[in-house]
Design brief:
single chain, mainly alpha, 75% helix, globular
């Protein structure tokens, strides 16, 4: 049971998990098509990646399920990707990557500092 005063937060969490994931998939598909991939082909390639990420999340939880350049501390890759992205894609990449950085546990202080700098760079 969800206390009456907390239902709005429960619903917001559900929206983030389901609906906003679809918005993120749409943005990822749009970004992929900028590389020349046909729109339908991009989505067909992204869905198994999403499924694998969710399966890994269920299996090992957070933060162990995290992967990618932010949790590896690869600031050079993040910088290149941010330069390539435009508009909302850049803003969302930066915002969600900063959130991942907060959740990452295995980075050294210099790697974390470099990543913060990369995420703050324009």
């Amino acid at each position: 049971r969800i206390p009456k005063g907390s239902r709005v937060l429960y619903h917001a969490a559900a929206v983030m998990t389901a609906n906003l994931t679809m918005a993120l998939a749409d943005l990822a598909e749009e970004t992929w098509t900028r590389s020349g991939a046909p729109r339908g082909a991009a989505l067909r390639a992204l869905v198994p990646l999403m499924r694998g990420a969710v399966d890994n999340l269920e299996r090992v939880g957070l933060p162990r399920a995290l992967t990618g350049p932010v949790v590896r501390g690869d600031a050079a890759v993040v910088t290149r990707q941010l330069r390539a992205l435009k508009g909302d894609a850049r803003k969302i990449y930066r915002l969600l990557s900063a959130r991942l950085l907060e959740s990452s546990t295995g980075l050294t202080k210099p790697s974390r500092t470099a990543m913060k700098k990369a995420l703050g760079a324009r």
